[in-house]
Inverse folding.
């Protein structure tokens, strides 16, 4: 029997009251309760990266993070980075480089790259590959993904300065 509890979490800058067992994976709350479909269910074991979101700016795997672990934190999903009308520089770079084929991994790739760029504004290709090594892509668009992160790294610091 699951213990339901009213919990307040902050996602994409908005406070949300959710009713869930404290051990419910954050991914389920994001998708099923809040209707956010950027983070995907891939493996459920923190192995593929499809569910990656940011917790206080750091990439985490939402499939293994209990919702109770984000109370008091700021969670950001792909939807919180930008909109289709006004995408973030990182989202635009992935679009420009046509980095998605099937697109299943892209949300996790972008969120992991956002974490990387927040700490390493001008990463080398090796640093990009290393940061994204835990995110799996079966379509083989890795070269385009690396180019997209590199392109964004040239824009993101300029955006932050303005």
């Amino acid at each position: 029997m699951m213990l339901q509890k009213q919990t307040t979490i902050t996602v994409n800058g908005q406070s949300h009251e959710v009713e869930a067992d404290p051990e419910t994976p954050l991914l389920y709350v994001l998708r099923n309760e809040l209707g956010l479909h950027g983070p995907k269910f891939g493996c459920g074991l923190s192995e593929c990266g499809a569910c990656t979101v940011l917790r206080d700016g750091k990439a985490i795997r939402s499939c293994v993070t209990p919702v109770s672990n984000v109370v008091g934190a700021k969670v950001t999903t792909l939807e919180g980075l930008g909109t289709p009308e006004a995408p973030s520089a990182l989202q635009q770079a992935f679009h420009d480089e046509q980095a998605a084929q099937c697109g299943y991994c892209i949300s996790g790739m972008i969120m992991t790259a956002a974490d990387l760029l927040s700490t390493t504004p001008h990463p080398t290709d090796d640093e990009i590959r290393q940061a994204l090594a835990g995110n799996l892509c079966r379509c083989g668009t890795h070269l385009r993904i690396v180019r997209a992160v590199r392109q964004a790294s040239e824009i993101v610091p300029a955006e932050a300065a303005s």
Summary: Helices lie at 26-33, 78-81, 89-96, 106-119, 125-132, 142-161. The chain has a mean pLDDT of 93.
